[in-house]
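dude i think i finally got it to work??
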Amino acid sequence: MTNAEAIVALKQMKTFCAAGSLDQLEYAIEVLEVLDEVGITNPLDKSVYKDVKK
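look at this
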């Protein structure tokens, strides 16, 4: 699955989301959009983060 596909699915879920969870859902959408913009197309691939310090 690509970031774009996940973003589309999450945006569709907003219709059915509980009002109390809308902010969290919108946050997840924004995170995926930013990752996609910076070129991280597969955020579940841990090798992408090998240079990130904890």
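The mean pLDDT is 90.
im so relieved honestly
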